[in-house]
Specification:
Shape: globular
Number of helices: 11
Helix content: 40-55%
Number of domains: 1
CATH architecture: Alpha-Beta Barrel
CATH class: Alpha Beta
Radius of gyration: 19 Å
CATH superfamily: Luciferase-like domain
Length: 357
Amino acid sequence: MLRDTGNRRQPDLAIDGHMELGLTSFAETIPAAGEKGISHSERLRQVVDEIVLAEQVGLDVYGLGEHHRPDFASSSPVVALAAAAGRTSKIRLFPAVSVLSTDDPVRVFQQYATLDAVSNGRAELLVGRGSFIESFPLFGFSLNDYDELFTEKLDLLLAIRDNEKVTWSGTFRTPLEGSGVYPRLDRPLPIRVGVGGTPQSIVRAATRGLPVALAIIGGEPDRFRSLTTLYTRTLEESGFDPDLYPLSVHAHGLVADDDDEAAEIFYPSYAAAMTRLGRERGWPPMTKDQFEWMRSEQGSLVLGDPETVAAKILRWKEILGIERFELHVSVGTMPPEKVLRSIELFGTKVGPIVRQA
C-alpha cells in the first residue's frame, strides 16, 4: 500500500493496523565468562533458524545487523536474510542497521530491492550510521566525515528509491548522470532510519519524511519522550502527516517462563557482552545491581515472563506512541535452545497480550 504524503509517496510499513512485534540480532558470538564461543558459520545458521521460528509463532519482522568485527558474524546481512526468505513466506526482513555511511547507496538499494523481489515484497531497509566504527577504515572512509557521509548518502538513497534514472552529484562519490538503478519494484522500497537518541538524527529523518527506529539500550526509556515529540513536530512542520509515520523501538531482552528464570538465563551473556564492549568505550563493568535496575519497570531491559514483557511494551507504547517493538534477544552468546524458547514465548504468549490490549 502507498500513502500520499504530499511530498513523497511513502511505503506503508504497517500490516493491518495492529501493534507489530519482531526480533533483531547482531549474530553475536560473545561467550559468557568461562563459556566457549561458537563459530561465525554456526551462528549464521542459527539466525536463519530463528527467522523461520519467528514466522511460525506469528511475529511480523526480523532484523539482522551489519558489523565488521570478530564478535559479530553478520557483515553481510542481506545474504543471511535472503537465505531466510527462501524458507519463509510472510515475515518481513530488514538490516538492523545497514551502515549506509560506509557503503554505496546504489549497491544498498540494489541488494534490498533484489531481496524484496525474491521474497515477494517482504524486504525493508533500516539505515543508520552504526554503533561501531570498524567499517570506516575497512572501506576507506574518514571518521572526520561521520555526519556528512550519512546525510549525503541518505539523500542519494532516497533519490534512487524515487527515480529509475538518477542525476546526482556530491562530495564522497562520483556523480550520476541519468544513471539507471535496477531492479525496480512494484512499490517504493520501505526505508526507515535507526537513531540512538540524538535530536539531530530525529530531525534529519523527519524532514525527509522517514519513519524512525529508536534504539533504547540503556537509561530510562521515558527520556525518549522528548525525541518522539520532536519527531512529530518536525514532521508536521515539514508538511508530513505524523499518523502516516510509525515509530518503532529496539531494545535488549528475553522472554522466559518466569521473571527470575529470564534474569538467570540472560545476565551471564549480557554482562559479558556489555563489559567487553564497555572496555572499548570507557564504561565501567556491568554489575548485578545495575542489571537489576535495568530490568525494573523504569529500566531499558525488556526481560521476564510473557506478562512482564507485554506490560513493559504496552507501557512504552503509551509513553512513546510506538507502533512496532523489536526485541533483541541474544546480546551475548546464549544457548540456542534458550533463544528459541524466548522467540516461541514472544510470539505465542506476548503477542496475543499486546495485540488484544
